[in-house]
Structure formats: structure tokens, C-alpha cells
Model the fold of this input.
Amino acid sequence: MSTIAGVAEQQYGRHDGLDVLKIVGQAVDEFSRHPSMKRPAEVREIVNVAVGSSAEAVAKFVRRSDLQGEAAFESSARDSIDCGDETDGSSGMSNRVHKPAADEDERLMQGRVAPRLKLLVEDEPKYVIVAVEHLEPYPLKMLLAALRSAHCPPLIIPKGSSLKPLAVNEFIEVIFPKERYEIILDDASRKDDREQQRRMAAVQDDIKTKMLISDPEILDRLVDAVSSLAEEQQPPIKHVKVWDEGGYFSVCGRDFGDKLFGRGLELRVILEQTENGFQKHLGAEEGAVAPVAKIAVARSRLKEKEDQATGKGIVLTAEYNFMKYFGVELSVLAVRPKHAVVIGHGKIGRGIAVALKAMHVYVVVFEPNPTRATSAKNLLGSAGQVHTMRVLSQAGEVPEEVKRALGNAFAIFSATGKKALHCEHLQYIPDKCIVATATSADDELDDSFLGNLSLGPRQPFTVGSHSPSCRLLLLHGGAAANLAEGYSLGATLIQLWCLKLMLMKNAHLQSLRSNAHRCITGRMADSSEFASIEAEVETEFEQGTGVAVSTDDLLEQFIACHQR
Done:
């Protein structure tokens, strides 16, 4: 037995009925502090000493899911490093001490990445950018530093999966609505990070819901915030751009532009990043059309790379947390006839399937699109099955093939963005099955699915009980798992950001030249119409020229920002 495992056994012993979460957390804490710290094999040894076999660990975890544990959840120390904050040592919550943005921006601008992003911003009329974005501290800091350095003030509408108290505190000065998040951060009960996170998620969900119905009150508040930022600049800024992700502005874009126009501001561009959001924008256009240039990068080659990396990240998140709690690789559950089910073989679904195949997991894919189904068959070969059907018929019935596949699933990955799983599926999903989604729960899981589950405390594996024989492990409660875990896409993400900034710049300059942006039809244009710009970005990355960003550049940027 190793030294570290010996320490764990000596200190905690082995006890029947012991709280699994608490023991695993204490053991991993001991592991992280020990001077002879080793790698994951040591973690497995400690966890197995503490809780016994993986089957026992899973069973105990499900039975005792109401117990929070002490340290088995995400590491506040890791979040502190990511956010650059000092914590109060009690809950991972920062002391609300903000580093001066100017000082931090100066450090970031000394690296290799932020200055290249700035190049795509500074040679055009200044603007306020309203960005629906995940609060992933390190890459987002670089983008914000570039924008502020170019005197283009940002306003962030945070996405739900990445809402964590430390990250919200880090970016509070640029978050909308700032005052609602500040109330939560300043509340006397802030020692309970999970309660804070739940309340923040409720705020985010409220904002998203109201934007999707073009609620006048929330739009007025958003316009007030944008107007204040514009007036703070000298000379005052007149132009506004929207960096959308998930179709937040699909319904309210026209009303938002009209309200800005009434305040002397002009909405020039709306750019959408995701396929889910692209579909929302297209659907909204069947009614009113916003008189503003609209672009989507959802079907660009660069977005495809990002989506496939996202799919791999979701699987890695499931693997990491399974190792963290139960001490073994996820693939130990994949003994035939057990398999993983992947619903949807779009770009993210393909990334999920690639990652599972690399883990030697048998994969069953459901994809109604014939072209995508063929792609899945070519990818998996003898390592999986592909069914060209929906998992729920139009009549609300579950096909026999779906029943059989769900019945032998140890994990289900849903990647459609179209509420694929319904209550009708629950009776066929086996006990202790892992369920993970590729986007927010309200887009991927039908209300009837979640409504028929009794959900335990929100944590990396949230227990959702349907019956004594159907207790599911929802990865991060159904949220986009990789984002909830803080998984960053590095140079792939920066490359996509460069494309977005170049497309927004191009559309902005075109509207200025035509001087007729108020008469633009506003139909959402696929980025394929701007193939030359995408080719330019790809060429620069391949050749290491222009605004190209490599992994080495990101390492240099990180060191420049964090060295003492």
C-alpha cells in the first residue's frame, strides 16, 4: 500500500455505512495536501480504501444522496486559481475584493493572446458589446482585456452552466443584471455556496425566460445598462453589437434595437454562435424581422471543431467525476451487454461518440437524419450501433429499439437541443444510469422528464429518483456538464472567437458603407456566406501568422498573468 493510501486508512479506517461523500472528500483532501502527492492511480487507491468496491460506492452514494459531504464537490482552491481570487478559507467564496481591472488587463495585454484579439477590434468605430457568454474565467479575461484596451466596453449576460459564486464575483462589474447578483453575493447566508449557486441559476433562468418573450421591463433595464456604458466613453459610443449564444436575442432583438435607437444608439450586428440559437433565430424570423445585420457561426468549420471538442469535454467530465467519487474509470461499467447511448449525432454528439469509442465503450447512437446516421456508422464500425429514428415517435410512443437500448445503458448522453428525453423514457432507464446533456437542461430534457424526478442536492452527480428501481445520476443536474465543470477549449475556442470578431467587424463596416443598416432585412445569415473570412482565420492559425493562437501562446499568456 502506498504512503498516501496508508495515511488515509490510518486516519479514517474502514466503516460500514460510512458517508461516502464525506470520506471520499476527506481522502482526496489528504491526498492533495500530502508532500508525496502522486497521480490518479493513487486517488483510486485512497478511494477504494475509504469506501470499498465501486459497486458499493455507487449504491451508498445513491442511498445517502441527501448528505452534502464536506469536500467531495468541486475544489474551491481550483476555482480560486482559475479566477485569480483569494478566498476566505471557509467556503471558497471570495471576500468580494476586486482586483483593479486596469492592472489585470495590463498583465493580460503583455501576453501573446489578448493583443491579437485586440487587433480584431480596434480598427473600426467603437462599440458596446453585449455578450451572452459562459463565465469561464481565464479565456473570458483575455477577451474582456482586449475589448477594454480597444475602448469597447463589454456587458456580459452570463450563461447558466458556468454560474459559480467565485466566477460571478470575479466579473461582477461587467455582469447584467449586476444588482441582482450582488444581492446574492452580499447575502449573510453566503457561506453556503450551493444555495448561492441555486439562487444565481434562478436569476439567470428568469433573465433568459423574459428575453425569450421580449419582456419590456428587462429590455429597458438592459438598454439602461448599455446606455450608461456608452456615455462613459469619450467621445460617447453610438454603436452596439450583440454576441449571442443560445438564441437569447432571437425574439427580443428587434425590440432591443428599437429601444436603443430611441436612446440615440444603433444596434449594428447580432451574431449567434450555437445551432440551437440559430434555429431559434430562424423561427423568430417567421414573425418580425430585426432591422440589423445577423450572422450565425453555428455551421462554420471552426465551430464544428469547437463542438467536437465540447463533446469530448462532456465525456471527460463524466469520467473525471466518476473517478473522483467512485475510484474507477467510467469504462468499467461498460461490460457488454452494457453500453452508452448517444442521442443525436450532430457536431457535439459526434465528439461524444469519438471520446467513448476511444475509451473502448460500445456506443448506440440514435440519429434520424440519414446523412448524420451514415457518418455515425462510418465512425463506429463494429464498435457500435446506429438507429435512424427519433427516441420518441410523433404519437408519443417509445420505439422498441429505444426501449432495448435504454434498458442496457450505463450512461445516456443527449445532444440534440430539442428536449429529447421525456417522462415516457423513464420506465425503461435502468437504476443508477448516468444521464448527461450537451446544453442546458431546459433545452435538452423535456419538462415532463425532470418533473417526474425527485431531485437531490445539486452536485456533480445529482440523484434523480423516479422510483425505487429508477434512480438516475444526472451529471451536474442536467446542465451542460463540461461548462459546469469549468472545462475550457483553449486555442480552439480562441480561434472561434477570432472568427466571430472578424465577422462582426466585416458586417459592421458593410453597414456603415451602405449607411442603410436600419433597412437591412435582418435575416440570419449562415457564416458560409462569409467563407473567405473563415478561410483567412484558418490559414492564419495553420501558418502561425496574423491573429493565430497556439497552445504555447496560451501557456505564455497564463505565465505572464500569474507569475510573481
The mean pLDDT is 76.
